[in-house]
Amino acid sequence: MKMKVSDIDNLIERYFEGETTAEDERHLRAFFASNAVPERLSSYKPLFAYFDEEIQKVHPLRLNVNRVWQKKRRWLYVLSGAAAAILLVLFLNRALYPSDQRYCSDNYVVINGRCYTDIHTVRAMAAEALHEVATPVDEYFPKTDINDSERHVVDDQLKELGSMFNDNETKE
Amino acid sequence: MKHIRYALLLLLTLCFLLPEELYATETQKDLKIQDVFIRYGKRKNVTMVELSKEMLETYGMTLYKSITIKNDPEALRFTRQCLKADQNGARIIKEITDDGGIVSAYYQMPGKEKDINRFVLFKVNTRQVITLVYIEGELDSDDLITLLFTRKDL
């Protein structure tokens, strides 16, 4: 932006009164660095040239410091983002697939989502499940689904399996 | 400075969370059927039991877990999938299938520790009630069969 000499006079006056902003001072320095400085203001030229030079010296340092901070900040953002992402994954994982936690004690039974720790109930329920898996195959097949001959086949196969299993055990 | 504090706070939280997550992974063991307990354990029409060491010493068990699920075809499909996945390397003591689906099975799973046997027992009855049992302990398959067929109470 090209400035009028009258504006410059005004700025210089404000400058020495200490009322100029950083922007105003930048304009002043730019003006005195140019070739458009009138003779009557040329006495200020070395002064603003000096300020300009000093600022140029300080600025690169400040820029470097800023760059280092920016880099650090970027890393912090990346780290914070990564940590937040891990936390989110852990949270979602826990919410969707809760860990194999012991619900209320070392020995418990959960019925319809409610936990009971009464040991008699726990034992009874455990025994019930064990008895259920132990019930023979003919108690699985409904009577209408299978006739006697088929049941014999299944029983024979089971017996055979059992004997194979016993053989393996003795070999071991 | 604020960001550093936030990052430290997050990392600290992670440090508190991670061991539990690792522990959770460890206790989930290497079996897919554990997912059945985790997924359905707290649902309606489900009974899940867990007994540990002291209560089971007499039977040579260290861990007993069972789950009974009523009227849930999706759970049956999922349980069968898990059993299929766990069959690899397992010793099949008994397996009965109906229409291609397992209806009753006893498996001995490869042990993680010496002298510790692991068994998976499964049955689905005519009323579509699924029963899945996981047993861990020093007992061998003979002991298990005896326990199953003498109908002792735990």
Helix share bin of chain A: 55-70%
Q: What is the radius of gyration of chain A computed over CA atoms, rounded to a whole number of angstroms?
A: 45 Å
Quick one: which chains have the greatest interface?
A-B, 52 and 66 residues
Order of helices and strands of chain B: HHEEHEEEEH
Mean pLDDT of chain B: 82
Coarse shape of chain A? rod-shaped
3D structure, described in words:
The complex is a heterodimer of chains A (172) and B (154). Mean pLDDT of chain A is 77; it is low at 140-146. By secondary structure, chain A is mainly alpha-helical. In chain A, 68% of the residues lie in helices and 4% in strands. A two-stranded antiparallel ribbon of chain A has the order 1-2. The N and C termini of chain A lie far apart (98 Å). With 154 residues, chain B is of the alpha+beta class. Chain B folds into two domains: 1-28, no CATH class; 31-149, Protein Transport Mog1p, Chain A (3-Layer(aba) Sandwich), CATH 3.40.1000. Chain B is built from four helices and six strands; from the N terminus they run ααββαββββα. Chain B has helices spanning 2-27, 34-40, 73-86, 141-149; strands at 46-52, 61-69, 91-98, 101-109, 117-124, 130-137. Chain B has a six-stranded antiparallel sheet with strand order 1-2-6-5-4-3, covered by helices on one side. In chain B, a hairpin with an 8-residue loop joins strand 1 and strand 2 (61-69). Chain B is globular. The termini of chain B are far apart. In chain B, 31% of the residues are buried. Classes of the chains: A mainly alpha (172), B alpha+beta (154). At the A-B interface, helix 3, strand 1, helix 4 and helix 5 of A face helix 1, helix 2, strand 1, strand 2 and strand 3 of B. Strand 1 (108-111) of chain A pairs antiparallel with strand 1 of chain B.
